[in-house]
Amino acid sequence: MGATGPNSILRSATCLALVLGAIACSGQAPTSPSLPIPTESLTMRVQTAHFQVFAGPTTPDATVRSAGDRLDAEYARILGDLGVASHPTVTVRIWQDATSYFSELTRFFGTRNQATGYITGPTALRLLAGGDLNTHAVHEFAHAVSLRMNPRFGNNPRWFWETVALYENGEFVHPNQIESMSRGNFPTLSSSTPKSARQSTNWATCSATSS
Amino acid sequence: MSRYGRDAFIRLIQTNADLQGVLGVSDAAFEAARAAFVRQKHLS
Predicted ipTM? Predict the structure, then answer.
């Protein structure tokens, strides 16, 4: 997932349009007030040598600890691979509640996507618990380190942005598991843009696999 | 990585994957080489 910042202008314009639309369409006050949607509150649960891990009250201690330990274990290797001497302490936020997670993701990016992990900068990882959380965490950390190496690197180009994270995280996907590649159809670099996630992922897999 | 080395990998990150500048190959040549490598290593 990328590190592109929220498009506040677009978001503001969208909000304004929604408000104006609501005013234009309603003509009268709503008969019942809408209740605020509860959001998962995160607190710091684990502090490791290089990471502060935040999570909600329902995320098991073992899950939080495991993520922090795995990140700490991979820290020196990834920095060494990428030729980086040090990296600032990283904040890791883990949501258990998918609604809260995607609400925050949508607020940050200004649009909804299905990513179960993303970064908001070189020192901030955000993750949805479930699945292979530790693998997702290290993937996002690799993004974070590469973004610190080059602040303009996020999703630019997307195929290599993802290649670096996949390669550093050892996320091998056999090309036979990607339908187009198994048929011998390889995506072009020019087809790899932030809006063509599938093509970008195929290219990243191809590149990481053959590196 | 095995072909160009770690230093090139790092420079590609720093240059937003400037294939011509770092590796001395065009996008088209890189695409062809990648595809050939993957076919030979994983799909043959």
Answer: 0.91
